[in-house]
Predict the 3D structure of the following.
Amino acid sequence: MSDTSKTVTSSNPETQVLHAGWRADAATGAVAVPIYQTTSYQFASTEHAENLFALKELGNIYTRIMNPTCDVLEKRVAALEGGVGGLAVASGQAASAMAIQNIAQAGDNVVTSTDLYGGTWNLFAHTLPQQGIEVRFVDPKDPENFRRATDEKTRAYYAETLPNPKLTVFPIAEVAAIGRDLGVPLIVDNTAAPVLCKPIEHGAAIVVYSTTKWLGGHGTSIGGLIVDGGHFDWEGNAERFPLLNQPDPSYHGAVWTQAVKPLGPIAYIIKARVTLLRDAGAAMSPFNAFQFLQGLETLPLRIREHSRNGQKVAEFLRDHQAVKSVTYPALQTDAEQKRRADTYLKGGYGGLVGFELTGGTEQGRKFIESLELFYHVANIGDARSLAIHPATTTHSQLTPDEQAASGVTPGYVRLSVGIEHIDDILADLDQALTVATGTTAKAAE
Ligand code: PLP
C-alpha cells in the first residue's frame, strides 16, 4: 500500500497524473504502482474485519469491491476531475449504467441529451426502460429542454461533453444550473475531452469515463470510471433521492447520506461501490487498472498532440474538394456551437474529426478501405489514428431517425486522429481520398 503521507498534491493535470494518490509502496519502496493481483485481503483481527464490513473504517475486503491498484487509478482520475472520489468499473458502459442505477429505480426517469455514443443510446432506449427506468431524449440545442422534460420522478440529467460522433459541445453550466434549480444532478460523460474540460468545475455533479479511450490511450484494455463531484445536495433533495436518503435494507439499514458523512461528501460514490458494484459485479481488473495508470501518465501530453493533429486534419479536409462537410469543434459555423466549444474546451478541441464525402456512402466505404496508416476499428482515443463508418458499425443498431438525432448521416466518416507525425497522417488521408474520389487536395486550390 502507498505511503500516502508523502503523496504530492497539485492542481496541475501534468503533475496529478503522475503523483495523485500514490508515492511509493510502503513495503518495498516500489515507485510504479504494483499490480495487486489478489482477490482478497488478510484481516488484522475479527474486529478489523467487522469494522470494514460496517464501514466504520475504509479498507480492502474483496477485489470485486475495491483493489489497491484500482484505488490509485480512482484517486488519480478523481484528482484530475476535481472530485471527491472515484469508482473504477469494467467498462465505460458499466460506468454509464451504474451512474444512473445508483440513484434511479423502476418508475423513475432520466433526461438525456440526444447527442450520444450509439452504445449509450441503446442502453437508454432499450435496457434501462426494460428495467423500468424511463429515459427522455431532448435536444441540447436549447438547454431549457431539460427543464421542460423534468418532473418529480426525474433523477438525473445525462450528456456527453464532446458527443461522439456529433462533436457539438454540450452546454454543461447551463444545464447544471437548471438541475441545481430543480434538484437534479447532471451526469457528464467526459470520455472525449479529458484535461480539455473539467465538467465538475462547470457544475456537473458526476463525471463518467470510458477509460478504454484517451485515458488509457493505447488500445489495450476496456474500462470505465465514475467520479463524484461531492457538491450535489442529495440530503437537501431527500424526496427525489430515496436510494440515498432512506434506510438501505441491503446494508443493514444504512442511510447513505448519513452513514459516511464523517468521511466526506461521498454518499453517492460509496453507495455505488458497496451496493451496485457488490451486486452487479462489473469490477475493473487490477491488471487493467495498471494499464490505465500507465496511459494516464502521458494523458495531458497526448491530448494536446491529438488536438493539434485533429485541428490540422480538420483544416486539410475542409480545403479538399471531394469533402462535402467537416465536423470539428473549432470549425463550427453556428455561433452558439462555436461559443460552447470555446467555453468548454481549453487547450485544444480534441482528436475526433467527422466528415462527409461528396460521393456519399459508397465513396466513404472506398475511402476507409484505401487507408493504410489509419486503422479501421471500432474504437477512439488510441495513440494510433483510427477511422470508421458509424452508420454501418457503431450506430448501426439505431433507426435512421435515431441515427440522424445522434448526428450520424449515411456518408459520415469518423476519424480519431492519433499522435503520429502530422505529415504521415495527412499523406495517408490524401492518398485514400485520391483513390476513393479521383480528386486530389491540390486540385482544390
Ligand atoms: N462513452 C463514449 C463517449 C464512448 O465513445 C464509448 C465507447 O465507444 C463508451 C462510453 C463506452 O465505453 P466502453 O467501450 O469502454 O464500454
The pocket of pyridoxal-5'-phosphate is lined by residues 91-93, 117, 119-120, 160, 164, 189, 191-192, 210, 212, 222, 224, 380 (CB under 6 Å).
